[in-house]
């Protein structure tokens, strides 16, 4: 039996942060390509700090709610849609990766 969830259960409070964690790097890549080589260092600095801020916001939201974050893109349940989910382990990995990238 496959697990089917209602659309109301698909989006948790703060679930949009998971979408933002995907949009920030993609927007940074596109901005760097458009701006050219002269402004890439500034764009990278902003994107790295924004990524760190999003990772910390995800951690803060998970710690406040005490549960995992979930977001279904377009409101479609998997397997038809794409489901983003972050639990405790993925939150820790997200924060550690953002801190290491910001440190480098």
What radius of gyration results from the CA coordinates?
16 Å
Low-pLDDT runs of 5+ residues are none
Mean pLDDT: 88
Approximate strand percentage = 5-15%
The structural class is mainly alpha
Provide the helix percentage: 55-70%
Which sheet architecture does the biggest sheet show?
Answer: 2 strands, antiparallel
Order of H and E elements = HHHEEH
Please tell me about this protein's structure.
This protein is mainly α. Helix content is 63%, strand content 8%. The chain contains four helices and two strands. A two-stranded antiparallel ribbon has the order 1-2. α2 (16-35) runs antiparallel to α3 and α3 packs antiparallel against α4 (88-103). The model has no long low-confidence stretch (mean pLDDT 88).
Keyword list:
single chain; 104 residues; mainly alpha; 2 strands
Topology:
Layout: H1 7-10, H2 16-35, H3 40-65, E1 69-72, E2 83-86, H4 88-103
Antiparallel strand pairs: 1-2
Helix pairs in contact: 2-3, 3-4
Quick structural overview:
Helices cover 63% and strands 8% of the residues. The protein has 104 residues and is mainly alpha-helical.
